[in-house]
Design brief:
Two copies of one chain form a homodimer.
Chain A lengths: L2 E8 L3 H17 L4 E5 L4 H7 L5 H9 L2 E6 L14 H12 L3 E7 L12 H4 L3 E7 L11 E7 L2 E13 H16 L4 E6 L5 H14 L6 E6 H10 L6 E4 L1 H14 L7 E5 L5 E5 L16 H13 L4 H16 L2 E2 L9 E2 L2 H11 L1
The complex binds 3-isopropylmalic acid (2 copies).
One 3-isopropylmalic acid sits at the interface of chains A and B.
Chain lengths: 359, 359
């Protein structure tokens, strides 16, 4: 049966890097993989065309597809729009609609790119962490929220508020996802919370401990979020899999990816309960280099590999793409963001060429 | 008029490092500084003695004092206590009672200790950031909060929730404190929020922009918290002063201090509207090395300097203490945590001796 992929090129460098991912899909298809794809709008380009960042048509197509591949959204021209029209609203909406609660964000250092990091080689060489971030709950979506006039101890004034909230079912399902991820790796899971201050994360810790009974083979530890931020800088290799809520995950996963020094290399997967997913590079839309053939397409191509692995169940094809990326790095091809001494500097398309050549 | 200091040695290594700070105070006093001090209990030692982590007597003394010097609280034996009795409750309570809303946390790299960092020397040498963290508001203290049974989409189950909340007056006063801090330095202020998702931080950004009109000499920028976590790793020297809320500040300031590689060197100040303050090292109570004469007393001694500067208005004495610490580093004295090649390894007391010798 043909598996259907929805492509969302989005804004900035999005279309350019998506074009290279499509070349990879075309090759896999011509080699016999039974896939088909369609395009839709999200983010700023969707606002330009339809007035909203996540049009109904995109929503319908995303729900009908077997997997969704997203490049990047956003740009300075959209920052002046009212909140509901901003590109990132489209991102939050598609996550919620697809119910992709489990966001897997690897922070992986390729041997060839050790020098790209601001951290000392011995601290990050061989680094291989996955952060499992809960993606459809927490203070991102919690109600009540807003800005309103209130009588406070200081008088009548504006007050802004949001609600951090987790139910035990929400915590349980992300915990299962994290334990299962750890089982396939070094079997170490560190759950991050702020239980000494926040009740919502006290429940988080309690439920993670309850779920751990089903995974006796995984070594579970707990860390406070401030300490986790420190430990990522001090000794990131102590971690295998980390699991945390949406807000803490946003911060820690960005810090973790920057440890590698090459965020142009990092893909991500966001999965629902059935393994259907949304795949995207962790980098942004980089409007400053858009349209200049400068962007690194490898995170986008690695997102294709994650999609093949996690949603389409095409492990061999996923391995093939992953190893093609490793080979082009070994051959010395580098876009500007990962340029190292002696590397062959190439643009977006040429990097795509290099991947296609070894595929 | 005699200025009165309340000393809170607390738990773990607290009493040991406080003892060295007291030697510095004694020297300053014998050299003519008109100060006096008293002791009180906070944290685990207070629970042991009185059943609560912040006894009424400590509260009365803290409110009566001109400044409070705190070493550290907490230890594994207290983690089993009910929430209200945990040592960190004492810390949160004293901050709230003293209304020390402005927490100044410097992340400073001493030239002698550049190698202690996990980051490359060129990335952090000369690093000198101050993070201004709001300390008595936000989700730390927001109501409603708790864990309760609710009917959710998943059924009747436990739900944990907290409230992130800021009023414009709370934001305004911390913004003023941050702009004033920046004015005394390189005049660059970066305000950190998550305005693309959280209304509470949209108000934060709005009010910071309003306040900025009064500080035309300070260059204001804004950064999303996830990007700030990245930028601290990528290029921390781009920052001068950063200002953010209590929760984000907890995470970012710990990450920033770990960039220096020597958290045993970092003091902090928490100030109220009148400059009265609570001073403490940013490191914890380190129960594993307590009582072994291994702890680094320099962050505690530098907290004395901050206290002299910010609350007691004794700038000359503050400079004298700061420069004594610089001298002992230049002389090669090192506790274990900051040991470098060729350094003279010393214990807590010997490091105190060295400081006293140059004072
Ligand atoms: C754009 C923004 C809403 C989003 C988030 O905060 O989740 C982004 O930072 C991310 O991590 O994917
Ligand atoms: C101990 C804890 C409550 C405290 C905080 O979160 O504020 C600590 O992490 C700090 O930063 O001083």
């Amino acid at each position: 049966m043909t598996q259907n992929i929805l492509l969302l090129p989005g804004d900035g460098i999005g279309p350019e890097i998506m074009a290279q991912a499509v070349r990879v899909l075309e090759r896999l298809k011509s080699d016999g993989l039974d896939i088909a794809w369609d395009n839709a709008l999200i983010g700023g380009c969707a606002v330009d065309a339809t007035g909203v960042p996540f049009p109904q048509e995109t929503q319908d197509k995303a729900l009908a597809a077997d997997a969704v591949l997203l490049a990047a959204v956003g740009g300075p021209q959209y920052d002046v729009l009212p909140r509901e029209q901003r590109p990132e609203r489209g991102l939050l909406a598609i996550r919620k609609v697809m119910n992709v609660f489990s966001n897997l964000r690897p922070a992986l250092v390729y041997p060839e790119l050790v020098e790209a990091s601001t951290l000392k080689p011995e601290v990050i060489s061989g680094l291989d962490i996955i952060i499992v971030r809960e993606l459809v709950g927490d203070i991102y979506f919690g109600e009540p929220r807003g800005i309103e006039m209130r009588d406070t101890e200081f008088g009548n004034e504006r007050v802004g508020y949001n609600t951090m909230v987790y139910s035990e079912s929400e915590i349980r399902r992300i915990a299962h996802s994290a334990f299962k991820t750890a089982q396939k790796r070094a079997k170490k899971l560190c759950s991050v919370d702020k239980m000494n201050v926040l009740e919502a994360t006290q429940l988080w810790r309690d439920v993670v401990i309850e779920v751990s009974a089903e995974y006796p083979d995984v070594e579970l530890s707990h860390m406070l979020v401030d300490n986790a931020a420190m430990q990522l800088v001090r000794n990131p290799k102590q971690f295998d899999v980390m699991v945390t809520g949406n807000m803490f995950g946003d911060i820690l996963s960005d810090a973790a990816s920057m440890l590698t020094g090459s965020i142009g290399m990092l893909p991500s997967a966001s999965l629902d309960a059935n393994g259907k997913g949304l795949y995207e590079p962790i980098h942004g839309s980089a409007p400053d280099i858009a349209g200049k053939n400068l962007a690194n397409p490898l995170a986008m191509i690695l997102s294709v590999a994650m999609m093949l692995r996690h949603s389409l169940n095409q492990v061999a094809a996923a391995d093939r793409v992953d190893s093609a990326v490793k080979q082009v790095l070994a051959q010395g091809y580098r876009t500007g963001d990962i340029m190292t001494e002696g590397g062959k500097k190439v643009g977006t398309v040429e990097m795509g060429d290099a991947v296609l050549a070894v595929l």
